[in-house]
Design goal:
Layout lengths: L1 H24 L2 E2 L1 H11 L1 H22 L4 E10 L5 E4 L16 E4 L4 E14 L1 H68 L5 H36 L8 E2 L8 H10 L8 H21 L5 E14 L2 H6 L3 E11 L7 H67 L5 H35 L8
Parallel strand pairs: 1-6
Antiparallel strand pairs: 2-5, 3-4, 5-7, 7-8
Helix pairs in contact: 2-4, 3-4, 4-5, 4-7, 4-10, 7-9, 9-10
Length: about 450
């Protein structure tokens, strides 16, 4: 017994430990994992998914109209004051009754009456119903595409927020290095000032530089916190949950990125917005057919069966015999003239269909413009990145030469530190250009409809 308890306790502890390790491991997210997390947790996507579920319920409602409709009715009536019917005095043909005698008021009815009945209604033919069934599948398709569109929007927002957080962290690292170098310079300069080799003004200038760097470092730290807060928001992650980024923006393969961008072309069908308009065109066409179907007759059948009874005493109502009744009817409704109502409705639906087609053409033009702009932006981003890379190489070479001069006694320590500071500034510019390139790549992928795919 003790061994069993020990085993169960060990297994429970192991399960808790594995759960803890798993939760800790999930704190670090790559870009793909962050997008996948957002697809599962973002509230906007959940709302569009709920709309898709609601669409299924709406489709079921449309189909239910063609199924048998059964209803039951129970009625119990107490005629508190029985209505009277007025008849002529000689209504029964009695010749002895004077012609000027007032009418006879005869009670018409009984005190208590009851009835129980049920009715079955079945739609046999309705043009609008059959068109509605065809529209149901299109309506489902529209709801699903709305969900995909929401996912594309969220994927774009998460990707840009991810890159923003990465660049903010790189800027913080560079500022920490700069602050460390300037602190070292401050110590050396104070020592040289104490020895009388430099003026106090040089110390004050370096102190101003340190203060500015520390102020900028605090601003960048605030930017990091804001970037992570934005990323959590876009991902649908609770604000208090830990989040780390596993991807490194320094590991981006620029040659591969440039090749993949040049290989891609424009396809309107890849854009979910264009696909949505195609579905809306189908719905507009079905809507037009639905109005035209109103000219067709509607056929339905109904079957009713019931019992009724009537007595002057309430107790006799349930102790006496109830009488059966049944009715079978076929209903045919043939529209003849509606004052041109459907004609004007058809004109409106035709206009709505033309507007959808115009929207398709406008969207094509918009996609062309977005793609051209994205292509130009990414070309500029590549050019800027190449320039910053050259500046980075030059700054690195200046640092190398400055250190050699300092070691040989022909340069100053300040010259070395300034060169290193310029080198790190060139690194900052390089990462900023890299961020602009990644954002331009996201915009181009979105313009081409390649940012997110369900496959």
């Amino acid at each position: 017994m003790k061994n069993d308890q020990l085993i169960r306790g060990s297994m429970a502890f192991l399960a808790i430990l594995l759960s803890f390790v798993h939760s800790r491991a999930q704190e670090s997210y790559s870009l793909a994992e962050a997008v996948d997390y957002a697809i599962k947790h973002n509230l906007n996507i959940k709302n569009t998914q709920l709309d898709a579920v609601s669409a299924e319920a709406r489709i079921g409602e449309i189909r239910a109209a063609g199924l048998p409709q059964v209803s039951a009715n129970f009625n119990l009536t107490d005629n508190l004051i029985i209505q009277r019917v007025f008849l002529p005095a000689n209504a029964f043909g009695d010749p002895t009754v004077p012609t000027d005698e007032p009418p006879i008021a005869i009670p018409f009815g009984i005190k208590y009456a009851g009835s129980v009945s049920s009715t079955l209604n079945q739609l046999i033919f309705s043009g609008s119903y059959f068109i509605g069934l065809k529209a149901a599948a299109t309506y489902r398709e529209l709801a699903q595409k709305n969900t995909v569109q929401s996912k594309v929007t969220v994927a774009e927002a998460v990707t840009k927020a991810y890159y923003s957080a990465q660049v903010a962290e790189e800027r913080a690292k560079l500022l920490d290095l700069n602050i460390g170098r300037v602190d070292s310079l401050m110590i050396e300069t104070k020592a040289m000032n104490a020895s009388g080799f430099v003026e106090l003004l040089d110390v004050n200038r370096i102190e101003v530089q340190i203060n500015n760097l520390r102020t900028e470092r605090q601003k960048v730290q605030n930017l990091i916190e804001l970037s992570y807060a934005l990323l959590r928001y876009q991902m649908g992650m609770p604000p208090q949950e830990s989040l780390k980024l596993s991807d490194n923006i320094n590991n981006v393969n620029l040659d591969s990125l440039n090749t993949s961008i040049q290989q891609s072309g424009i396809s309107y069908e890849n854009r979910i917005e264009y696909s949505l308009l195609n579905t809306q065109e189908k719905l507009a066409g079905l809507d037009l057919r639905n109005i035209r179907a109103g000219y067709l007759p509607t056929v339905s059948a109904s079957l009713g069966y019931g019992h009724n009874n009537g007595r002057d005493k309430f107790g006799d109502l349930f102790s006496s015999r109830w009488f059966n009744s049944s009715v079978l009817s076929l209903n045919v409704n043939i529209p003849i003239f509606d004052g041109f109502t459907k004609r004007y409705q058809i004109d409106q639906k035709k206009i709505a269909l033309d507007k959808v087609k115009n929207s398709q053409l406008l969207l094509k033009q918009s996609i062309d413009l977005e793609t051209n702009q994205a292509n130009i932006n990414i070309k500029n981003a590549f050019a800027t990145l190449e320039t910053q890379k050259r500046n980075l190489d030059l700054a690195e070479e200046i640092v190398r030469v400055s250190k050699i001069k300092y070691k040989e006694g022909v340069g100053s320590n300040i010259e070395v530190i300034n060169a290193e500071s310029s080198f790190k500034e060139a690194q900052t510019n390089y990462f900023t250009a890299l961020y602009d390139l990644m954002i331009a790549k996201v915009d181009l992928s979105k313009a081409r409809g390649e940012l997110y795919s369900e496959n």
